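CHAIN AND CONFORMATION:
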Amino acid sequence: MKPGDRLFDNIDRAIHGCKVGVAVFSRRYCESAYCLHELSLLMETKKRVVPIFYDVKPSHLRIISNKRNCNSEDHQRYSHALEEARNIVGLTFDPLKEDWSEFLRNASDAVIKNLIEVEEEDWLQNMPNPMMRKPY
């Protein structure tokens, strides 16, 4: 992105074009309209999401109801997306107890594995019906 670009337009375009999203949840994740917008769009577009819970438990993620710049429609979208994310198996990381390098290796492996699965699913869905092929 460059100065003058519309942030949400770029975020939306990137999410629509991605195969797998990674959501890194932290204690202050729900305070960011950008993070919540991205998560909502990932969920609404049915993208595969790899949640990473950084020093936070999924059950602790909540939208603050009196949040500025969050109308009731957005609040509902964000709450629904968070609920969906809580129901996806993710990775957890406790910075006081765990090793960064091992965690990054596990996170990379999880993302790659999901990308491969999505590619395989896409390939199977787009494969022509073998019964309709003409013999050569």
